[in-house]
């Protein structure tokens, strides 16, 4: 997938909650589900690893099921699915030799010292906790039918929380760890 395709998929995914919330009463769910399904299928076709392909296919299957069963209310569960998949990716890396965060850190610091490795493992656990919280919050709001709050949380607040977590870790790393 070209860079423009990745950017488009990222933007649609980011704005998905607001697109869905604003268009849910106008019969947009089939169009949005079809677009998301198609984008995830395209992404699956060009992924480099089997795990990335599997994640993309799972998300495409989610939207295909929405289309087949014509259940617009299930569209609220996409952010939950994404958080759970991210939890699976980050969580699985805790059982690998290198966590996902460590692999990313080694792109800038190939000779990461042992304290850096411990830090990346700790940060990976923190992100896992965030994804658990995020999935639970989105699920609770979807399940309770508080769709205004769901749109606000999944479309804005969760991104602010992610940004705060990312920025907080960066500040900690630069000021305390001096890396």
From TrEMBL:
Signal peptide: none annotated. Keywords: Membrane, Transmembrane, Transmembrane helix. The keyword Electron transport does not apply. The chain crosses the membrane at residues 7-22, 28-46, 53-70, 76-96, 126-144, 150-172. This is DNA gyrase subunit B. It comes from Neisseria dentiae. The lineage of its organism: Bacteria, Pseudomonadati, Pseudomonadota, Betaproteobacteria, Neisseriales.
């Amino acid at each position: 997938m070209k860079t423009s395709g990745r950017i488009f998929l990222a933007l649609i995914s980011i704005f998905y909650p607001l697109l869905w919330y604003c268009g849910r009463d106008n019969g947009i769910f089939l169009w949005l589900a079809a677009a998301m399904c198609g984008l995830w299928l395209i992404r699956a076709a060009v992924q480099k690893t089997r795990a990335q392909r599997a994640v993309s296919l799972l998300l495409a299957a989610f939207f295909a099921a929405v289309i087949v069963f014509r259940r617009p209310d299930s569209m609220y569960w996409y952010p939950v699915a994404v958080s759970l998949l991210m939890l699976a990716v980050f969580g699985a890396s805790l059982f690998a030799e290198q966590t996902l965060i460590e692999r990313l850190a080694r792109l800038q610091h190939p000779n990461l010292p042992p304290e850096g490795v411990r830090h990346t493992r700790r940060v990976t656990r923190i992100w896992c906790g965030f994804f658990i919280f995020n999935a639970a919050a989105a699920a609770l709001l979807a399940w309770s039918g508080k769709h205004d709050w769901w749109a606000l949380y999944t479309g804005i607040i969760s991104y602010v929380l992610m940004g705060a977590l990312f920025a907080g870790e960066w500040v900690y790393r630069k000021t305390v760890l001096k890396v």
